[in-house]
Amino acid sequence: MKLPRAWVLALGFTLALLAGCHRDAQPAWRLTDVSGHLPDLAFKLTDDNGKSVTAADYRGKVLLVYFGYTHCPDVCPLTLAQLHVVMQRLGGKADDARILFVSVDPARDTPQTMHAYVNAFDKRAVGLVGPDKDIEALAKLLRSAYTREPDKGDGAYDVSHSSAIYLFDRDGKARVLATPSASQDDMVHDLSLLIDLGAKA
Amino acid sequence: MMSRPSLLAAVVAAGWLLIAGTAVAGDADAVTASNAWIRVLPGDLPAGAFVNFTNASDHAVALTGASSTRYGQAMLHRSSTEGGMGRMETVDKLEIPAHGSARLSPGAYHLMLMHAKPAVVPGDTVVLTLGFSDGSHKDVTFQARPANAL
User: Cα–Cα distance between B71 and B65 in angstroms, integer?
Assistant: First the structure.
C-alpha cells in the first residue's frame, strides 16, 4: 500500500507530537512502568544490623526491592550479583541507591546471616528480616508471592518467591519493575534516570 | 622377527587391551569440562557450581550427579524464574547431546553443594567427581569465586 505524501507527513507529525507529550509526562523507562499501579513503599522490619527500620528511613534513596532467602544457592545470588554490577556501572551515583533484600525465610534468616550475605554482594545492600506477618504484609502490598516447599526430610526446604525487582523513587513511590532476565543496560538506564529525578522539594 | 606363538600372544594381548580400553573409557572420557567454578556464599550456606561441557562422542551422555571430599552433599538442581517465580527443583540428569554441548550455569541447571569442610573461600580450587549415567566418573577442578561473580 502506498500512502499519499501528505498523509505520511501528517502521521509523522502526530506521532512526533505524541512522543513529545509522552516524554514530558514520563521519563522514557525501558523496564515495566508501574507508576500509579502500586502503593507507596511501607514496612516495619529489622535491618541486618539488628536495627528496627521503616520505609521512611530510606526516603531520599532510590530503592531496589527484591525478595529472596539466603539458603537460595542460585537465583538469589545471581540476581544480587547482577544488581551489584548495575550499581558498579553507576559509579558514585549509586550511593543514592540501596538494594533492599527482603528475606521470605524468617525461620532461618537472622540479621547476622543476612549481614554477611548482603555484604558479600554489595556494600549498598541492606538485608531485611521480620516475623512472617510483617513479611507477608510487605509482599501483599507489592502483589508479590512466596511459598515454602515441603521439608525434604532433613530440615532443608526450598522457598519459591517472586523474582521481580521493584524500583522505588526517592519518595517511596513504585516506578518500574524488572525481571531477573532484564538487560543490565536497561537496569542501569532506568536506575540512573530514577536517581536523576531527585526528591520532591 | 617374532616367532609365530609370540606374535599370536601379542595380537591377543593387544585385543584385550583394546577391549579393556573401551570398558574403562566410558562417557566420562568423551566429555570435556571447561570454565568450572563455584559461587561461594558466606558461612555454611549452600553454594552453586557451574561448568561447560562438550561431548565428543556420537551418542548423548548424561551427567547424573557429583560428589566431593570437600562437601557433605552435592545435588543436581535446576532453577527457574518462569511465571515470575524463582524456584528450584531436583533433577535426575543433564543431557549432553552427541557432538554437542550443555552447561551448568547460573539461573538454570547447577550443582548445589552443601556443608563444606573445611570452609571454601574465593580463590580455593575444589575437585568435584562428576558422575555419568553409564557409571563412569570424571574429576574436574572448580575455581571458588566470590558471591558477586558473574
Answer: 13
Region B6-20: what's the mean pLDDT?
Answer: 55
Is the pLDDT reported for residue B69 higher than 80? yes
Q: Is the dihedral of CA A90, A167, A73, B104 positive or negative?
A: negative
Q: Which CATH code, of 3.40.30.10, 3.30.450.20, 3.30.930.10, 3.40.1180.10, is assigned to A28-196?
A: 3.40.30.10
CB-closest option in A70, A74, A81 to B79:
A74
B-chain residues near A82 (CB < 8 A): 150
Under-50 pLDDT residues of chain A = 1-3, 12-24, 201
Assembly ipTM? 0.77
Contact A77 B85 (CB under 8 A): no
Q: What is the pTM of this model?
A: 0.81
Helix, strand, coil shares, percent, chain B, to 5: 20, 50, 35
